[in-house]
Amino acid sequence: MRNQTLRNQRQVLAQQAQQKAIDVRRKAGFDNKSPLCIYGLCDKLNVRVRFVDISMEGIYLRETEPIILLSALRPLPRRIFTCAHELGHHVFGHGSTIDELIGESESAQAFQPEEFLANSFAGFLLMPVLGVRKAFVSRGWDFAEATPEQIFTVACNFGVGYETLITHMAYTLKMIGSSRASLLLKTKPKTIREKMLGHPSTDPLIIADTQWPMPTIDAEVGSFILLPTGTEAADETITLEKNHSKGHLFKANRPGVVQVYCRDTGWAVFVRVSRYQFIGLSEYRHFEEVEDE
Fold it and tell me: Per-residue pLDDT tens for 121-147?
């Protein structure tokens, strides 16, 4: 009986989170099928975001001018998801919160409705069901039979981690079964990176193909970026490492914003590169010299 009550509570909270994510997107001028920049959304909602040199996940401070603090030490996709999570606390009117590092003991912790609500909101906000389905269909991929490399590509599409997308597809969106999710999770992101790069590497990899739906790609210094074959960069903010069987592999060298484009197809986006483990307000993350408050 207790387990059934908990399942019912989770279902109600998940429905609330999904509706809130839809409302927030609509009011901010975003559709419900495209990826978004979480930091740009926070700006629209007048919630400041600051990266700090603290080992944690994130902090939401409910003040006259609300602010989200994110650990600059966490991987780029984790920062994005944590920012959406903290924004969830804001839009649901929760008090100030501190989210410590997520560890293996997380599953053993008592159920916390506010944390579950914020986490569900983050998932629906960053990875709406229509958007996830579109990401696979536009590439001609069957999400039910997607390979680890395809899942990884779509995760990059939404700025989230490989494992985060799999979990969301399986247990929230119900797009794949738990057995399929378990099989996909046996392949680790580092294995995919090694396969794509041709050598072991701890440096992040972002895959942006011709179906990339955003006008920008966010990276940080040291990241590899796999772009469509024939892509050129307007300057040396990112430089070509090698021609890859699936595109041109670039590496981010310095902070800044650079246009990348394919002369033959007309495909073009801007790559925004932040300093490695940047400390400061999010709006300054692509600047060479940061003028902080």
Answer: 999 999 999 999 999 999 999 999 999
Domain interval for residue 224: 194-284
141 and 28 co-located in one domain: no
As a whole number of angstroms, the distance between CA 168 and CA 172 comes to 5
Give the integer Cα–Cα distance in Å for 69 and 53: 10
Q: What is the pLDDT of residue 105?
A: 39
Q: What is the pLDDT of residues 149-205, one digit of tens each?
A: 999 999 999 999 999 999 999 999 999 999 999 999 999 999 999 998 888 999 999
- Residue 216 sits at φ, ψ, to 5 deg, of -135, 155
Please check whether residue 52 lies inside any domain of the structure.
yes
In a domain, 293, yes or no: no
Number of other CB atoms surrounding residue 180 within 10 Å: 17
Sign of CA dihedral 48, 53, 59, 63: negative
